[in-house]
Specification:
Radius of gyration: 23 Å
Distance between the termini: 68 Å
Strand order of the largest sheet: 6-7-9-8
Shape: elongated
Number of domains: 2
Oligomer: single chain
Number of helices: 8
Number of strands: 9
Strand content: 15-25%
Length: about 210
């Protein structure tokens, strides 16, 4: 869906109208994606933001909102992160996902983690804060085994009773597919997690 000058109550003219007509609803753009469409791109971008054709997410990062019957739709986290990183190799998730493991965690976290290979730090993009963390390896999608390992990696950051969570993790260890879990530990576990997992799996079972 392309924007047209008749779609909004604030009509654009000339080069700004041409730039607006090239936008695709729902897409996230970097400044350089649009620079070739205008000889005064910064001025025209400001004009498009003022008239609602674009929403500024961060310096040099914009979203062309897609309209619904309830108003403009925000971009997905994946769209924002992909444009920000200029990369598709990342994993976006909330630590609240740990609650799906059945380890007694209930805390809801108002932050979004982004495991990636390029950026590190907390960045505000739009109305959201993203915690970018550079990692050598991460899966393409969340699995119970990865979440289990990642929870142990980040035990010190949990807003929970850590000893209770650790005990639950110990107790639930046999319920996981041991081959997949060992693979996740080897691929994603930090040194402390690997050591703890080795100690747990080498424990003698009472007769």
């Amino acid at each position: 869906m392309a924007f047209t000058t008749s779609s909004f109550s604030h009509p654009l003219r000339g080069a700004a109208a041409h730039l607006a007509g090239e936008l695709r609803a729902g897409r996230v753009y970097r400044r350089e994606d649009l620079a070739h469409l205008s000889t005064a791109v910064d001025r025209h971008l400001r004009e498009l933001v003022t008239t609602g054709k674009l929403k500024k997410l961060a310096q040099g990062l914009y979203h062309a909102p897609k309209q619904s019957s309830f108003g403009p739709l925000p971009p997905t986290d994946e769209q924002v992160v992909e444009a920000f990183l200029r990369d598709k190799d990342f994993l976006v998730f909330s630590p609240s996902a740990y609650n799906t493991l059945g380890l007694g965690t209930t805390q809801l976290y108002n932050r979004t983690l982004v495991y990636n290979h390029k950026r590190h730090g907390v960045f505000k993009l739009g109305n959201r804060q993203f915690d970018f963390r550079m990692k050598p390896r991460f899966p393409k999608k969340l699995t119970p085994e990865f979440l289990y390992v990642d929870l142990l990696n980040n035990l010190g950051e949990l807003a929970e009773d850590r000893e209770a969570v650790l005990q639950q993790a110990h107790n639930k260890l046999p319920s996981f597919d041991q081959t997949r879990l060992q693979r996740a530990v080897d691929s994603f576990g930090n040194m402390a997690t690997r050591k703890r997992f080795k100690e747990w799996t080498n424990e003698k079972v009472p007769a």
